[in-house]
Fold these 4 entries.
Entry 1:
Amino acid sequence: MRVLGFFSALLPFLAAFYFYYERSLLGFPDGHKTELDEVHSVFFLILIFWNLIFGFLFSFLIFQKRNFRDVNRRITIVYILSVPIAFAIEIYLRSVFDHGTGG
């Protein structure tokens, strides 16, 4: 059971690293950022901190006694439900701020 807890704690940290990497690739080589890049920069920061919070929560719950099972289930459900919400926000941002213009 602790192995599953370890991987559930590792996943948000890997996601935070991925969003940090994606945030570093925003913009054109000359430094110009489009409106979509500016909005994504803030959105990726929110996702980074959201994943770090859940990563630390899952890491904390690995070493707790069995009476935290209900708390762990609730936190896991909230984290799983936040993924489609993040995708929906991403689709909305791309549809509103992507005008097809380049730099």
Entry 2:
Amino acid sequence: MKKTKLPDAWKKTTVELEMALRNDRQEYLHAKKNHAVSWRKEFLNVQVKKSKKKQWTSRKARDHFLRLRRMKQREEARRRRRAQSKGSTGGLQAIQVEETLPTGQVDLRILTDRRQVEQGSMQENRARYDQTRSPYTTPPMDEPLYSMFTGADAERNSHALLEGRIPMLEGIDPYTKSFLEQCRFHQGHSMIPMEVSPADHTYFWSRNPENKGSEPHGLHNGHFKAGIHSPMVAQCDALFRHIPLTTGFVLTTGGI
């Protein structure tokens, strides 16, 4: 049926099928000999006309289209790697740190333990980019503000500053005083509750597309979109979202 293009080829005899194939072959050779060149020119002309219709009005429009296409390709590649668990390679595997030997000589030591690598990287980044300690110790605030916002009572004093319960101290330069005054919330400004309620959770996932914004680790967005149809599951998911805000601990995986 595929070669002869006959819908009822199974009803034909072998002789009739061979005759049909022979006729198709002769028609093909005749068209190739007499019409192939003209048909090819006609096809190319049609393709040229189509390509002219697709030409961009400006180079800016063409660059914008190509940029969007590259972004879509990268998003698709990230989703594919995430689904195949090929996105994470383990990060930095080893670093070299300076170690002072008992003889006083400084030698390089290779660290491969993950915790030691993390600690060494943090120390290196702090030494390179921390503007308050490198190259000289220059705290961003002077006393007594430095002790108020970096000591044990830093969190309590920060909330008091936002709520306007800390009086302006004497001896503060006008720029710091202006900044602290701007940090205060206006009396008519309503504080945004930090708790993730089941209603907020349901509203968010009802409007969020399923195929975008998937978490690198944990559950797929389809789980949350399906869970909002169950009040119990939606409440559990909202509680899990509320845990980082109250405890500071982030769940590494969705399965609990």
Entry 3:
Amino acid sequence: MFLWNRQITIEPDSLNAGVAGLVDGVTHVNSVSDYEFSLWAPVLGTLGQFGISARCEDFGPFADEMAERGASDEAFRAKMNAMGSSIAENPQDTLWNVLHVAGEMGDVPNVCAVVRWQAAPHQIMPAIQFGIGMADYVSGISG
């Protein structure tokens, strides 16, 4: 499974309009997509940063759907154009290979915790095992 994420930064003086545009855009996409997209706001972090994410089994069909929406979905394009001036910088996309899942996504509001670390190449497998153990431990505490 893959986790696609787009990080978007909204201009501080356009925060209300930008957030409304993000909510409107994600709501529209969820009404027409085969995938479920989530909109995330930080509890701690940089003011104006937001994340949009979706999970997919195969990135090819997912990317094809997104490209088709960008090219042919006039309602989506109008929504994105309307909020364009609210965006502070180019969005940044990442694609993650999900190695382990601890717990389940419940009803909104969810909390997502991301911990990153860097391991030497010869320590990759022990580092992954440690990360899985930590995810299970934290999930056991928080549910």
Entry 4:
Amino acid sequence: MFDAIWHDQQSRRDFFKACASLAAISFAIGHAQEYGKVDPREASYYRSLADGRIKCLLCPQGCTVPKGRRGLCRVRENRNGKYYTLAYGNPCAIHLDPIEKKPLFHFLPGTTALSIATAGCNFSCRYCQNWQISQTGPEDTI
């Protein structure tokens, strides 16, 4: 019975070709994290202060960040008097969601919307639905 199924559905050559393809794909995925890293980019909306400190002007928190430290959002870092964003080009979640899930409830019903998220947030909402990514830095999300 097994021999009849094997020959009817797939040859050995096709089977080994499929196995080799899967092995190559799994190898590539395993090494994709090394090649997909984006270097930090200099941030916008900040002012340099004395002693290498930074005054962040992006949100109402107005963090004053010393050298080598991060702001409250965990995604902007002071590196020797320059402010860098660690979230640029580094999404931690990409989804196709139904449009009804968004605030656009009656806009093109039945379609999808692309949702992109990066780590970090400057709020600490008690019932945040995205707390796993909003309360961590970019290096802690995969």
